[in-house]
Amino acid sequence: MAKYTIKLVWKIKAPLEDVWDAILNTHNWPKWWKNIRQVKETIRGFDTGTGSLRYYKLRGILPYRITFCIMTTNVVQYEIIEGDIYGDIKGNIEWHFSKENEFIIVHIIWAVHDTKPLTYIASFFFFYLFKWNFKSIFKRGAKSLTRYLKAPAEIPIL
């Protein structure tokens, strides 16, 4: 089973509250993040966001779709969002927020493995291509978020 641990950093010049709200409110992602095709809330969860279960349909640079659910397991306002992932991929995701001068730094950690038979088998041969695909999706996400917030950013190069 191919496992991916993908670490990314977004550096966005915008108020922390705006960045936090845009990321926490995933139902709005398809409006600004081209790769996110659909988000459906299955379980609302608590007001903090903890306990929510949402279904995601995502399309990367490579010509295949990934569908999964994220159960939000931990939310500390303006600091961290964590969730467990189930579906075509399985694992967890973490979003860590901090401030550096006028920039908001968002550290994203995906630790997942494939569960779809085709991608599971292909991942042994195309591990780096799949990893590049996920990084590209999140690089596009950072660019899309800065446009959505009308904020300058420093987008890391893959």
Overview of the structural elements:
With 158 residues, the protein is of the alpha+beta class. It has a single domain, classed as Alpha-D-Glucose-1,6-Bisphosphate, Chain A, domain 4, CATH 3.30.530. Helices cover 29% and strands 45% of the residues. The protein has helices spanning 16-24, 29-32, 117-149, and strands at residues 3-12, 36-43, 53-59, 65-76, 80-87, 89-100, 103-114, 153-154. Strands 2-3-4-5-6-7-1-8 form an 8-stranded antiparallel sheet, covered by helices on one side. Strand 3 (53-59) and strand 4 form a beta hairpin. The radius of gyration is 15 Å and the shape is globular. The mean pLDDT is 86.
SSE diagram, text form:
Blueprint: E1 3-12, H1 16-24, H2 29-32, E2 36-43, E3 53-59, E4 65-76, E5 80-87, E6 89-100, E7 103-114, H3 117-149, E8 153-154
Antiparallel strand pairs: 1-7, 1-8, 2-3, 3-4, 4-5, 5-6, 6-7
Which class do the helix and strand fractions yield? Answer: alpha+beta
Beta percentage is 35-45%
Q: What's the end-to-end separation, in Å?
A: 24 Å
Number of helices: 3
Mean pLDDT: 86
Strand tally, please? 8
CATH class: Alpha Beta
Query: Main beta sheet, described?
Result: 8 strands, antiparallel
CATH homologous superfamily name? START domain
Number of domains: 1
Q: Indicate the low-confidence ranges by residue numbers.
A: none
| Main sheet: strand order | 2-3-4-5-6-7-1-8
Per the CATH scheme, the topology name is Alpha-D-Glucose-1,6-Bisphosphate, Chain A, domain 4
CATH architecture title: 2-Layer Sandwich
**Structural Rg:** 15 Å
**What string, H for helix and E for strand, traces the elements in order?**
EHHEEEEEEHE
Shape: globular
Helix share, percent: 25-40%
